[in-house]
Amino acid sequence: MQKLYTILLALFITITQSLWAQQPVKPNSVDIYHQIQKLNFLGSVLYIAAHPDDENTRLISYLSNDKKARTAYLSLTRGDGGQNLIGPELRELLGVIRTQELIEARKIDGGEQFFTRANDFGFSKNPTETLQIWDKNQVLSDVVWAIRKFQPDIIINRFDHRSPGTTHGHHTASAMLSMEAFDLANNPEQNPEQLQFVSIWQPKRVFFNTSWWFYGSQEKFKAADKTNLINLKIGTYYPALGKSNQEIAALSRSRHQSQGFGSTGTRGEEDEYIEFLKGEMPKDKNNLFEGIDTTWNRIKGGKAIGDILYAVEKNFDFKNPAASVAELVKAYSLIEKLEDKHWKFVKLEEIKKIIAACTGLYLEAVTDVQEITPGSTLKVKWEAINRSDIVMNLEGIGAVPVFKHQGEQKIRPLQNNVSLTETITLDLPNNFDLTNAYWLNQTGTNGMYRVDNQENIGLPDVIRYAKVGFWIGINNVTIPFERLVVYKYNDDVKGEVYQPLDIVPLVTSSITEKVYIFNSDRSKTVSVKIKAGKDNISGNAKLEVPQSWKVTPTEFPFTIDKKGQETIVVFTVTPSSEASEISIKSVITVGDREFDKEKIDINYSHIYKQMVLKTAEAKAIRVKIKTKNEKIAYIMGAGDEVPKSLTQMGYEVTILKPEEISAERLQNFDVVMTGIRAYNVVNALAYKQKLLLDFVHNGKTMIVQYNTLDDLVTKDMSPFPIKISRDRVTEENTEVRFLAPNHQVLNYPNKITAEDFKGWKQEQGLYYPSEWDANFTPILSANDQGEKPKNGALLVAKYGKGNYVYTGLSFFRELPEGVPGAFRLLANIIALGK
Q1: Which pLDDT score, from 0 to 100, does residue 15 have?
Q2: Are 431 and 374 in contact (CB under 8 A)?
């Protein structure tokens, strides 16, 4: 068993991490045969772009499912800087969602997923700016690392490295870095610190995944010289799956729900073009891997393995997959002896899954708790069952070596269709790692996440260490398998449900509001919600603020009896007499230990539940903001937290559902405000718009926040013609010029100055109108460096007795970030007509 523990240790410290093991995979014969075909193809492709959603799922699916190539997508960022169509999460929380969406997409199209440490800081208009905000050397080293680790024969760039300024700066930068890394990955002097884990590697060729769109029109593309282009016919139909390649790709792309990228599959032949850029151009344009040995012969000792596995593929019995097991186990033993560490690791993992699938081997380690704290005892129920006539034994079962396992090790036969189950106890050390998105564990910069452990860089998912190992003996060969310990329960509606096991702090806390506005010397109450990670927690809560601010009481004692229960304690905070912005931090003391983390749960049905640990803090602003007593109806759009900020400003805010909009109900409000992208996602606004415009005409104010120019639910969003564009100002601290300095919106009740546009986050605004009716008064003008002025950020029009306002200013980002000037300007917009 000592040898087995050594094997297990080596297996468990591997950097391959995936939530794919949460839901047990139960492949059928067609799936198994497909896996065998991929096992016998030793070629790989790395697709490179900048964001979640940039990848071409049609091409990834084609390469993985038609060509059987090992295919991966390297997304330089996790999409943190985008918008969220399904909820209020932004920035790093949105990045967590989009990470999971990419993982789910790859499950469907058959690819693998990687990232770099680059932080999606928001829209960038050119790669020069992008590479100034990113640490170019770090991101380049991450691309080199991905190439050395994955060892692609072929690289395909989504974007053109030769056309800066024609698309998102992140896009062009991703292609530029790919082109540099293509050569540098084979240079031992480049990032030599990586070579203790991986070897240098030279891909064979690199392409640009072009299309007519990059040429400006289909006509221009049709007339273009295609000498360096390869035309891939990607419209494959897979009879065994009953789906076309495009249908699989559409299902994959539809995982990007936070971006609203639901896609309908197509059928029939379809062309995909890739342009040769560097390396060796294939002589046969019908064979992307021409000149690359993709057989077992490419590696030393591979021929004997190939002789076995090609016969397994040829003779595969769909009615009795277990008939292949004896030969598969022989091949497994030979793969274990390979000198090529890269292919040895890849193919061992592949063939183990195939052996398990052929025998119907089901292995599971589940617990009945979803959260547990370090230092606790965890009961794990394991199950092992062999559903074939193959003779096999369970030679041992154990846990990751950092656990103390009070379990019995003995050899037990796994008889055909006889389940073995047992409950074992695992003692988690007090220093056991908490569950978190690993790239958020340390403080990074605006452009980069910080990950110090080289082996972790680029891993797609949360790293989880609670695992159980099973050693299965077949034909005198011991094969180690691992399973993550997962939480499983039965839902009365959904049935069997699996979720990750989360290791949580002993206690967490959260300040109930993330921004507090103090516009006078008056104190405010600040509530702190405390949640226990285990039973019987007692301690003290306190708020940490600068000395010029005061908190009473100094400490607040609490007791919580049951794990998962919450209690709320309330402090009184008195601001400094001077204008200031501070952080309020919640700190919980239990015994001699302090806890300062907030636990944020992200729950959406299309991804596994995610837990994020962040510092438990809020922002407090002592600023002079004059407001009136307007009553505001807020119509939610794609999801934002603006209503919370309005409440902090002192307004009476009602979330008005679209079906509740009526002339009678609107009489109760002074202002109607629509959330971001409301006219893109709220279909009911199409037939409620007349009521809203009548509301304005009768003397009230309507404020419409940004919408995109595609798929508006009504053309009558505004009482006067307005044309939305893609114009935006991404340099958040660029100069803002006042086009109508005497307009009420800049003067009442707050005097707006240039100071109010300092400290904005990520961008000033987006999707500005480029054309508008003469009834509108443009208020502000700004532009990014080297561009023409953008004057559509804030448009105000009199309509009847009231005021209609359209704004692309990013209030949805600035208010939750506590930007004082954004609060002051919005107060003036709300006060129009007073």
Answers
A1: 31
A2: yes
